[in-house]
């Protein structure tokens, strides 16, 4: 598989990904409904902030934060771990491997292909946010937009690569989805999905800054709601992409070794 | 009739325990994971109560009771209700639901009792542990009447959960790719870990009448604390029976749809 | 036993042309087309009969079986199975029938088949004594002894299919619907299944409807066949009579002592195949005798047999014929 033929095939893969997302729109709707946790947390935190602001966050800020968290979660979704696990167990991964293009590209295309459909949900939510809690709900500067989009892509890459890494583990062991459960539990606690990470006790803060989770949700949300100046934002982006690079190495390494095993033992 | 179904239940339970024994290695992993989840479920509680003494009229100890009920019900949900849900989804996808429908017994009964995961009872224990810790923080024991009322509510909550589950499964007849349904179900249920009075406006309405989460965890916690009005108890019983009736109707309707439209 | 009158089953199917644009358009506007899976068929089946349903893929065979077993509601028409209306799905009806699908399994995947049997015993309310007797019989006939204690997932396809069949027969159904029961099995396993199915029918007087792609199954099991094509019934009667109608010619198979030239074969009949020392001729029924005697006198014949055309060929010719007819009507 050459880089050029991959590149040539990519538009078609993406287009099919979009078509699939359209065909499965009812399922996507169910998924969107099941990711409404930020709205619950919004209710909770605005209840807490009713009497007095919590740290730097007032009621309005919480509304802004959690609407952004909802948007970011929608646009950074990946489910390759379950797909890989399923295909390994069903033996259909072998079919994918017959194709002259790495299955990872098709997984990626399928995941990204769902994004246009998601925009149908995300854009109205963003407009709602702007109309109720003002223009601070979206980046106010041009560099802000650029940084936000870069962080969004980075966040998706982290999610996707972790998915690939954990999904690939199903080539080594049976219960890789259990590992995904553990990852998800940590993700919920540490990513800023349930509360802004600033509200963590300071000791924990440092730890969280160095873990990948907050770069999956927290950072894009903060950039979307203009929480950082240029310098801080750049430094955080740097850390995010450091994780992207690291996970790229880990997941591709696991994948390639896993495939060798797969070829040796059969599916 | 009843005896026949009790016997059937016995046979199905036996098959489930055999299965569970086969995968007892999973016991340890599953146990650790569900305890881990319980622990992470507490994290937001700690973060929130770092800031405030009490939220929407609930102290930390009292809120722990709600989480205790949430954990306990989650154990029942994941041990006795969800596994069968996944089973139905699998049946529909593989087309083997036909075999269930061909059996001369109530299909809802058959699918509902198809699979149990006895290991998940760990969550029930974790829930009880949370009750003890919660009452320790509050500094008093629950009254006998309160405990009795909360036991009645345990019944209504399980009935409500089960009915919600049947409604979710019914959706699986209409939506093709349904893997997300379990996830949806648990994620909606997640909201039940907060005292209901936190929610206002639309959410309060939804969680009381549409998806009665408030009734499931907040009511029993209030009953334990001895501050649940008797009228609420009556409402919970009547409401859960109504919900059960409704879900039964929807189930029958979906089966009708399945047999008249599928290929 | 089974009576079907003017059965129709139409589906509304959502059609979407390929392509992104079409996909997006279909979000807003869906176009439905009506598929006539079964379009007015009637037949009667007497108790104890063995009937084969034949037809190309998508002809409506499985749909008909599912209607007969109460899984699908007919769009119109009247269906009776042993006095019951299948779609009412009364317990009494369900206890009399069973559907075996070669491509789907009811065995509990992670448990030994014995557990599935036990479960079915409870569900069908089979008395202990009868259950034990039936099970012993099934275990002997199908040679299940070794298998019923292993988890189903560890069985081979053939072994699993034998257990599937046993699980389906625990309640001794009076009517047995078999949808491709031998699909994917090797030849000897197919033969085992056939022998067993036939003996079940004979011992219990059960009525049997079978669909299969393997003509050998049909030839071995079903004296009567019903041909369904595009939802319509195109033949109902004896299998031999069907072959007669479609292919009145017989095949004369010659095995020769020494090679002969093609010219010497040509006057005898239509040459189907010919290589060195074997030749297959196709001749009209009434010319068989003449051909045989001429061959024996003019050729160095070692061995000679007269056969019907292979069923597979007969079928494909029948379906090609009806397709041509439809196209003519359409034009």
Automatic annotation (TrEMBL), chain A:
Alphabetical UniProt keywords: Membrane, Transmembrane, Transmembrane helix
Positions of transmembrane segments: 21-45, 65-84, 104-130, 142-166, 178-195, 241-259
Superkingdom: Bacteria
Secretion signal span: none
InterPro entries for this protein: ABC-2_transporter-like
Pfam families according to UniProt: ABC2_membrane_6 (PF06182)
Entry keyword annotation includes Transmembrane helix: yes
Statement: the UniProt record of this protein carries the keyword Transmembrane: yes
PANTHER family with a match to the protein in the record: SLR1174 PROTEIN, SLR1174 PROTEIN-RELATED
Name of the protein this chain belongs to: ABC transporter permease
Organism: Archangium violaceum Cb vi76
From TrEMBL, chain B:
Sorted UniProt keywords: Membrane, Transmembrane, Transmembrane helix
InterPro entries: ABC-2_transporter-like
TM segment ranges: 27-49, 122-139, 151-176, 197-216, 228-246
Entry coiled-coil feature ranges: none
Signal peptide coordinates: none
Keyword Kinase on entry: no
Protein name: ABC transporter permease
Organism annotation: Archangium violaceum Cb vi76
TrEMBL record, chain C:
SMART domains attached to this UniProt entry: AAA
Coiled coil: none
Span of domain ABC transporter: 22-255
Provenance organism: Archangium violaceum Cb vi76
A UniProt-annotated Pfam family: ABC_tran
Signal peptide: none
GO MF entries: ATP binding; ATP hydrolysis activity
Protein name: ABC transporter
InterPro entries: AAA+_ATPase, ABC_transporter-like_ATP-bd, ABC_transporter_ATP-binding, P-loop_NTPase
Nucleotide-binding listed as a keyword: yes
UniProt entry keywords in alphabetical sequence: ATP-binding, Nucleotide-binding, Transport
UniProt entry tagged with the keyword Transport: yes
Record Gene3D superfamilies: P-loop containing nucleotide triphosphate hydrolases (3.40.50.300)
């Amino acid at each position: 598989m050459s880089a050029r033929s991959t590149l040539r095939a990519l538009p078609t893969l993406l287009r099919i990904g979009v078509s699939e997302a359209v065909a499965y729109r009812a399922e996507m709707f169910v998924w969107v409904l099941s990711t409404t946790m930020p709205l619950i947390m919004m209710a909770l935190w605005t209840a807490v902030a009713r009497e007095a602001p919590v740290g730097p966050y007032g009621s309005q800020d919480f509304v802004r934060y959690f609407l952004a968290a909802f948007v970011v979660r929608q646009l950074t979704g990946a489910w390759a771990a379950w797909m890989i696990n399923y295909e390994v167990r069903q033996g259909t991964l072998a079919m994918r491997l017959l194709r002259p293009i790495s299955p990872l590209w098709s997984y990626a295309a399928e995941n990204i292909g769902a994004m246009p459909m998601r925009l149908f949900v995300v854009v109205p939510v963003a407009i709602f946010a702007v109309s109720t809690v003002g223009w601070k709900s979206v980046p106010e500067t041009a560099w802000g937009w650029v940084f936000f989009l870069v962080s969004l892509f980075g966040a998706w890459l982290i999610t996707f690569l972790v998915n690939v890494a954990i999904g690939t583990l199903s080539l080594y062991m049976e219960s890789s989805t259990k590992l995904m459960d553990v990852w998800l539990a940590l993700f919920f606690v540490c990513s800023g999905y349930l509360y802004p990470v600033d509200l963590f006790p300071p000791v924990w803060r440092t730890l969280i800054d160095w873990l990948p989770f907050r770069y999956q949700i927290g950072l894009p949300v903060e950039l979307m709601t203009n929480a950082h100046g240029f310098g801080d934002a750049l430094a955080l982006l740097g850390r995010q992409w450091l994780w992207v690079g690291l996970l790229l190495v880990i997941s591709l390494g696991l994948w390639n070794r896993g495939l060798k095993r797969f070829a040796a033992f059969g599916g | 009739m009843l005896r026949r179904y009790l016997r059937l239940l016995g046979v199905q339970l036996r098959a489930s325990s055999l299965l569970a024994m086969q995968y007892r290695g999973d016991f340890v992993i599953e146990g650790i994971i569900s305890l881990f989840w319980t622990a992470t479920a507490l994290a937001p509680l700690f973060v929130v109560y770092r800031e405030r003494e009490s939220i929407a009229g609930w102290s930390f100890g009292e809120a722990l009771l709600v989480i205790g009920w949430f954990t306990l019900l989650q154990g029942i949900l994941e041990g006795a209700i969800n596994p069968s849900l996944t089973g139905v989804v699998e049946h529909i996808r593989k087309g083997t639901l036909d075999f269930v429908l061909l059996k001369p017994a109530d299909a809802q009964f058959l699918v509902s009792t198809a699979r149990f995961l006895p290991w998940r009872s760990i969550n029930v224990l974790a829930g009880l542990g949370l009750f003890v810790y919660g009452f320790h923080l509050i500094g008093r024991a629950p009254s006998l009447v309160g405990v009795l009322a909360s036991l009645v509510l345990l019944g209504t909550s399980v009935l409500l959960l089960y009915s919600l589950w049947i409604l979710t499964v019914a959706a699986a007849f209409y939506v093709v790719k349904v893997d997300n349904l379990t996830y949806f179900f648990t994620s909606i249920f997640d909201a039940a870990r907060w005292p209901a009075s936190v929610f206002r406006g639309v959410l309060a309405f939804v969680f009381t009448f549409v998806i009665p989460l408030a009734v499931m965890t907040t009511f029993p916690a209030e009953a334990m604390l001895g501050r649940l009005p008797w009228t609420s108890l009556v409402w919970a019983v009547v409401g859960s029976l109504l919900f059960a009736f409704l879900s039964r109707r929807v189930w029958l309707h979906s089966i009708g749809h399945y047999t008249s439209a599928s290929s | 036993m089974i009576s079907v009158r003017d059965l129709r089953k139409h589906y509304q199917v959502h059609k979407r042309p390929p392509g992104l644009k079409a996909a997006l358009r279909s979000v807003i506007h869906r176009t439905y087309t009506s598929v006539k899976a079964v379009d007015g068929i009637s037949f009667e089946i007497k108790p104890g009969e063995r009937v084969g349903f034949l037809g190309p893929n998508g002809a409506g065979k499985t749909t008909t079986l599912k209607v007969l077993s109460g899984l699908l509601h007919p769009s119109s028409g009247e269906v009776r199975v042993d006095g019951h209306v299948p779609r009412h799905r009364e317990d009494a009806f369900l206890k009399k029938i069973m559907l075996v699908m070669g491509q789907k399994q009811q065995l509990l995947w992670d448990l030994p088949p014995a557990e599935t049997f036990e479960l079915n015993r409870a569900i069908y309310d089979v008395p202990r004594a009868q259950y034990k007797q039936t099970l012993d019989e099934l275990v002997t006939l199908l040679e299940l002894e070794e298998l019923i204690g292993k988890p189903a997932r560890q069985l081979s396809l053939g072994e699993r299919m034998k257990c599937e069949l046993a699980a389906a027969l625990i309640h001794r159904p009076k009517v047995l619907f078999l949808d491709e029961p031998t699909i994917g099995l090797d030849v000897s396993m197919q033969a085992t299944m056939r022998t067993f199915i036939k003996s079940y029918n004979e011992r219990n007087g059960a009525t049997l409807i079978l669909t299969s792609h393997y003509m050998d199954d049909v030839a071995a099991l079903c004296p009567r066949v019903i041909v369904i094509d595009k939802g319509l019934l195109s033949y109902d009667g004896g299998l031999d009579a069907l072959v007669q109608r479609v292919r009145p010619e017989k095949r004369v198979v010659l095995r020769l002592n020494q090679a002969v030239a093609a010219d010497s074969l040509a006057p005898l009949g239509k040459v189907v195949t010919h290589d060195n020392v074997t030749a297959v001729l196709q001749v009209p029924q009434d010319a068989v005798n003449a051909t045989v005697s001429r061959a024996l006198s003019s050729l160095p014949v070692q061995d000679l047999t007269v056969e019907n055309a292979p069923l597979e060929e007969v079928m494909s010719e029948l379906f090609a014929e009806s397709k041509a007819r439809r196209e003519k009507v359409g034009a």
